[in-house]
Amino acid sequence: MNELNTSYSTDHELLAIVDEHDQVIGSKTRREIHHEGLRHRAVHILVFDLSGHVCLQKRSLNKDVNPGAWDTSAAGHVDFGESYEIAAVRELREELGISSIESLISIGRLDACEQTGWEFVQVFAIKAKRDLSPAPEEIEMLKWVSLAELGRLLDDDAVHVTRSFRRVWDCFKASELGPAFLAQACD
Q1: Which own/partner pairs from 36-39 qualify as long-range (CB within 8 Å, at least 24 positions apart)?
Q2: Residue 60 burial (10 A CB sphere; 0-12, 13-18, 19+)
């Protein structure tokens, strides 16, 4: 599930520690927070093209958590003192080279639990062109998939998909904004 690899990590990032209500109660490094299983914050962004295909990222084999697994288009921790929205904008720029964020919308939120790695996750969606610039230290490859193909990937036990992505996708499907966003993407 959460295979560890020490080749690449961001262990020294300073993150907020939050309580069960997502209120900041302190800060520690990423490494300390993960080691101690403390609640913290993250963002996941689903990137759709204008035809309604979703972009999946295959995590770099050098990542310290879930190397080589398929995951959300872009995702990352919310740095200490940063908002969810600012973190989403930063992650889109850092991981995919997306700087135009006019269509970024908040879809929903996941509570911190074991499946999310004790992260409160704010889920966003955005429409973008397919000319993305993936960060090689973060992403092995990108893949654009139709919603039908995504359903088959999620049903295939042989495909390594992160647990948090499964929760993010369920959040998107269940949201009131999700279906409307997809309908707009397909216009």
Answers
A1: 37/118, 38/118, 39/112, 39/118, 39/119, 39/120
A2: buried
How many angstroms separate the CA atoms of 56 and 58, rounded? 7
The per-residue pLDDT for range 1-52, each reduced to its tens digit, is 333 333 344 667 899 999 999 999 999 999 999 999 999 999 999 999 989 9
Give the containing element (helix H, strand E) for 120.
Answer: strand 119-127
pTM: 0.89
Assigned CATH topology for domain 14-185: Nucleoside Triphosphate Pyrophosphohydrolase (3.90.79)
- Residue 135: strand, helix, or coil: coil
